[in-house]
Design brief:
This protein is α/β, with parallel strands linked by helices. 27% of the residues lie in helices and 17% in strands. It contains 5 helices and 8 strands, in the order ββαβββββαβααα. The protein has a 4-stranded parallel beta sheet with strand order 1-3-5-6, with helices on both faces. It is globular and about 70 Å long. The N and C termini lie far apart (54 Å).
């Protein structure tokens, strides 16, 4: 019911969009790292995929990380600075010896923020398996802690993930409006007087 995607690249492939569409059509929530180059999400896949729930990162001070991508598909921000992660003993990027011996090192980026949302959604579904993807998004948006502009903004999305509040919230009579796609159709051959 939940997929985390902690990877990305320039552009959005048809395969990435098709995979997100397939997951969404089958009731699977897709949380995606927004990217770590402080650029518009619209230029990066799979974070720019329609139906993906793109998650950016905050730093220790509680501000949007300066590396976190921003833009129209930005949903939320979550913890993403110096998160303890596993490391292969054969890794070229060696952590300090004491951490290497234990098999962990600290990493930063949106690849660590997205799993925070995926984990929250997993707990929400454990509590209420009947939640739809739309209800999950509504709850996450409605319970997020505002960071910059009230409601949604391009830097922080709906704000900072508030897992405790999201887990207490049931689907209800609230709505969160987010326009994430505008299509303009023009007939350039039409004469206008």
């Amino acid at each position: 019911r939940v997929i985390n995607i902690s990877l990305g690249n320039s552009g959005l492939s048809q395969l990435e969009q098709a995979a997100v569409n397939y997951a969404d059509a089958n009731g699977v929530f897709v949380s995606v790292a927004s990217g770590n180059v402080n650029e518009n999400i619209g230029d990066h896949g799979p974070a720019s995929a329609f139906g993906a729930f793109a998650v950016g990162a905050i730093d220790f001070a509680g501000n949007r990380s300066t590396i976190s991508n921003w833009g129209g598909n930005n949903a939320l921000l979550g913890p993403g600075e110096e998160i303890l992660s596993t490391v292969s003993k054969d890794s070229m990027d060696r952590p300090p010896k004491d951490m290497a011996r234990e098999g962990y090192k600290k990493e930063s980026g949106t690849s660590f923020s997205s799993p925070m949302v995926a984990a929250t959604v997993s707990l929400m579904l454990a509590k209420n398996p009947d939640l739809t993807n739309q209800q999950i998004e509504d709850i996450l948006f409605h319970t997020a802690t505002n960071m910059y502009d009230k409601g949604w903004d391009a830097l922080s999305g709906a704000g900072l993930l508030n897992a405790a509040r999201a887990l207490r919230r049931e689907p209800g009579d609230f709505s969160f409006v987010r326009i994430d796609r505008i299509t303009v159709n023009r007939d350039n051959n039409k004469n206008v007087s």
